[in-house]
Amino acid sequence: MVTGLALIFASGLLMMLAELHSFATSVVFWTKMGLIALLLGNGYIRMRAENALRQDRAAGWGRFRRTSVASLVLWLVILLFGTLLHSTT
Ligand code: HEM
Description:
Blueprint: H1 2-18, H2 20-23, H3 27-54, H4 60-88
Bound molecules: protoporphyrin IX containing FE.
């Protein structure tokens, strides 16, 4: 999963550098970057919930469920913003 994300980041950065002037002022681009920051933060909280569950702390289930749903939704929205970016810049 981390390798996959790293590859997407690398290709995203290359695409960004190719047309820096148009992306720097694009609202869609910066919204997408904000969503990616949320995805990373959510991933960190989800990882901590996973660790809590491994130590048999049942309180981790609620957080695990919420962060899993949030992760799925964020992925789909980021995907949508990626395609929007392509058609708006
Ligand atoms: C740091 C992370 C990322 C950066 C800097 C980035 C940057 C970009 C840029 C600049 C484009 C526009 C390419 C163009 O139209 O010329 C793009 C397209 C796209 N991105 Fe990202 N991206 C990142 C992460 C992601 C992630 C995590 C996803 C998936 C969830 C994603 C999905 C897409 C999609 C589907 C497109 C449209 C491709 C196309 O139709 O040509 N990106 N990205």
